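Recall the central idea of this unit: under ordinary conditions, the amino acid sequence of a chain determines the structure it adopts. In this exercise we apply that idea directly, starting from the sequence alone.
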Amino acid sequence: MMKVKKSKRVAVLFVLGLLICLFYLVSDTIITDAKAEPQEPPEEHTGNCLSYPVIFANDSMALRGTEGETTFEGEYDEDEVGTCWYLQQDPANEWRAQSAQGNGQVHVNWIDWGDSLEARPWTTNSIVRVETVLYVNVNSDPMIGYEMRHISGLGMDEMWGTNGVTYNESLPTVYASDAQITVQYLGDEIPEVLEWNPLTNTWSPYEPYAVVMNEPYSAEVNIKGKVINGCSWNVRTDGYDPGEGYYRITMSFDNETTKTNFRDAQIMVTTEASSEGGEEPAGGVAAVDVVNNLTYIDVLIESGKGSGGGGGQGPPSSKGSGSQ
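Accordingly, the structure predicted from this sequence is:
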């Protein structure tokens, strides 16, 4: 009897050993096969080429290509007279307009808030595209830009391209890396007096003026090749949502360190932002606060359905890339 029991134990242990070995073999095969599966590379996004010249007020930003050199080996669109317009965001197409580092304080001459803010009111369901472009007058020393043309699409699907022809631009944009954006709720009416608090980047008194957004105002090279400051404000979901009423959108700087100066700045209101018949714009009203070195626009948010977008016209220019 003892021998039989021992044989059974040996058999059981042997079977268990085989099962364990088989388990590790199968597991290792599964893991090895899983690791061996090819992984799709992440989708790469090629940035926009600079077409409109820019002056860096303080820190510079990374730009595609080499200034003054072009590479046109990618996709293009041929116009009605046979001119080839080479598309943005194609890695085989590269060009780069002139850029320069500001020498001391950069005195902005024109401030252009996006036409979408100036042209009409928005609703509590809107996603509002906020854009601001700063320009400086360099008539005595114009900078090199590239001619641009709209190729296709609108909004997210919009595409522009260049024919590679350069021109002299006397109103380059200004890039300020220290810009701040603040969105504040003002109530049913715009108060006659508000005081700016540079320590908090807000208008006082704080109550009932709720702060919806208060963050760095980033810059980018847009699809038309122009450096702009911009962000999207989802009225319903971003930050505190007080609902319909007037809101103040403010672009400011740290005045202790900034090199962007609004002392000589004026608000630019273009034809697209104006109503028919030369009437005043139906949307927000922009202003410059020279004392506090900031600019703001007061916009009305109404109750109801709506959607948002952005983009406005730049300054008058015979060859420039047009709208923001």
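The chain has one domain: 54-302.
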